[in-house]
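Lab notebook, bench 4. The sequencing result for the construct came back, and we need a structural model before the next group meeting so we can plan mutations. Quick request posted to the team channel:

Model the 3D structure of this chain.
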Amino acid sequence: MRKKAKYNVAVVGVGAVGVEMLRVLKQRNFPIGNLKVLARSAREITVDGQTYHVDQISAEAFKGIDIALFAGTEGEKGAAVTYAPEAVKCGAVVIDNGADFRMEADVPLVVPEVNPKDVKKCKARGIIANPNCSTIQMVVALAPIHKLSKIKKVIVSTYQAASGAGSKAVEELYHQTKAALDNQSFKPEALAQRIAFNLFPHIGGAGDADFTTEEWKMVKETHKIMHAPKMKISATTVRVPVAIGHSESIYIETQKPLDIADVKKALSAAPGIVVIDDIKNGQYPMPIDACGRDEVFVGRIRKDPLDEKGLWLWVVADNLRKGAASNAVQIAEVLIKK
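Done. Here's the predicted structure in token form:
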């Protein structure tokens, strides 16, 4: 991409992630010349007191656009399948938050703190993929440790917020909680099971070996991002009654024993990580800490007392920001620097 003072940007989609993309672009002072907001139907939306005109999406709408941010939709074919090639034809680089291109060999899958150099691989297709929200925060935490000693095995359990399933799932969380408190009946619609005062280990569809598609995303995407196809990864993904903020309990086995002080030092020094780790005083990351932030929060950093090569981490991030919108904008920032 030719370096410019300002770039013409399109944001495609105005759901929870699309709105957050508009917010993040403004907050991070991305050098925007002309901004287009595109969706299935034309209308106006207001984000943080600023009104945006939304145009109906079409192939012609991408003329003159340098960077197209597709908000994406998990679990179904997103607008990028139809319109990403059209945007590329018009000269734009596409950054897609959906799952449609992530595992294609000629499309880089990027987390800027982990594999920023892969951005240059977008020349083949003109598309860069944004990873799954749960994968992003995990690899940010894994990368500094992987540099100390190659990681052999990862076992992760996620505690994923309702917003990971979209704005309707958040509405369902609020509605069900109120209905339950009022002793009223209700049934799940946006989510697979009841979410109020409940949690369930079912995110995504059924996949191979009785793992869900969400669980396989964490495996395959981590292999690709970290260029570590032999890393053994196993995941259990759980939906919890939290509006925003994914949490993960991660067990790591490294090739050689690591001093826990060195692990904490590496995590504290790593870009995009905030360490909160003082169990004696009740200090550790929680979803409420991550809400509205772009960093990945890490705590409960400890050695496995029964395995000198084993480590435990607790990792939390805002799934709408670092897990989606902020990571996409950060990819754009890397792109314009390159």
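The two ends are 8 Å apart (CA to CA).
Will bring this to the meeting.
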